[in-house]
Amino acid sequence: MSVITREEVAHLARLARLDLGEEELDHLASQLDVILAAVARVKEVAAEDIPPTSHPLPLTNVMRPDEVRPGLRPEEVLAEAPAAEDGRFRVPRILGEEA
Questions:
Q1: Among residues 21, 86, 95, 99, which is most buried (max CB within 10 A)?
Q2: H or E stretch covering 85
Q3: What is the DSSP letter of 65?
Q4: Cα 94 to chain center, whole Å?
Q5: Phi-psi region of 88 (alpha: psi -120 to 50; beta: other; left: phi over 0)
Q6: Which residues contact 78 (CB under 8 A, 6 or more apart)?
Q7: Which of the residues in the chain have pLDDT under 50?
């Protein structure tokens, strides 16, 4: 038994403002029928006593905790820069901006 008819697919296509040809309607009707039948099978298996889950296995956070570590001092960083001025990186001017 078909779950969705060709006419229903045509109606949905009109609502979605899709211009589907005759072949496309037949093709989509059969594909949607298979999808809806699969959903119906899952619905039959789902039991009331089984809680919904997002994942079948319990997940734990695999990230390590944040820890503060010393970083580079500004002088060390600027010493490696091609150009520095007033404690900042010096870069070429772009887009004709004025200082």
A1: 21
A2: strand 84-85
A3: P
A4: 35
A5: beta
A6: 84, 87, 88, 89
A7: none
Tokens of 58: 């319990």
- Enter the pTM of the model: 0.44
Convert the pLDDT of each residue in 52-74 to its tens digit.
777 888 878 778 888 999 999 99
The neighbour count for residue 5, using CB atoms within 10 Å, is: 12
Can you list the domains of the chain with their CATH numbers?
Answer: 6-45 (1.10.20)
Please tell me the distance from the alpha carbon of residue 80 to that of residue 76, in angstroms, as a whole number: 7
Taken as a whole, the chain contains a residue count of 99
Q: Give the pLDDT of residue 64.
A: 84
In degrees and rounded to multiples of 5, residue 58 shows phi and psi of -65, 140
Of the candidates 39, 33, 34, 38, the one whose C-alpha atom is nearest the C-alpha of residue 4 is: 33
Secondary structure letter of residue 52 according to DSSP: P
